[in-house]
Amino acid sequence: MASKKRVDSIADRIRDVPDFPKKGIVFKDITPVLSDINALRTSVEEMASSFMDLEIDVVVGIESRGFIFGAPIADILDASFVLVRKPGKLPWKTKSVSYELEYGTDALEIHEDSIAKGQNVLIVDDLLATGGTAEATCKLVSELGGNIKGLSVLIELEFLSGRKKLNQYNVHSLVQY
Length: 177
Ligand code: AMP
Hints:
Layout: H1 4-11, E1 15-18, E2 26-29, H2 31-35, H3 37-49, E3 58-62, H4 65-77, E4 80-85, E5 94-100, E6 105-111, E7 120-128, H5 132-143, E8 147-156, E9 171-176
Parallel strand pairs: 3-4, 3-7, 7-8, 8-9
Antiparallel strand pairs: 1-2, 4-6, 5-6
Helix pairs in contact: 1-3, 3-4
Residues 25-28, 62, 65, 125-134, 162 line the site of adenosine monophosphate.
């Protein structure tokens, strides 16, 4: 369990930006966390700590803020690091999945050779909102045969109930709203 003091040192640096990127959204700006190397280091350590004993082979980071936390978490867990990106960004052969947004659909891609069947996978992002992005990522990882051991996010917007879409998985968040 993360100490309250350590979690507070991160939460104090998450900035609310109302009406960004559109009216009615309160954007959780993590750039002040990134500006403070102690807060960034604590975030990464705490996001990795619940998954230390799960023999994680691969950490999957979700574009784009998931990359910032995912790569150092992979280092701590001695795992490889894999990117999940928006369509058209990955250069090699990809697997793709589309998912519902509030208005319309979006898609995510992964390199088809990035996860071997049976490898233990941890999925990382900065924030869990409705859970659509994380659910789509779980689908990609499962289609490649990865064994999803959990999801680790810095921030969880509990009022959006994203966790419900992920109820078969071990979801860990550090700061909740
Ligand atoms: P969702 O698919 O609704 O769970 O949205 C998660 C993705 O959208 C994450 O990659 C977040 O970075 C981003 N996101 C959604 N809502 C917010 C918010 N209020 N503040 C910052 N990022 C957000």
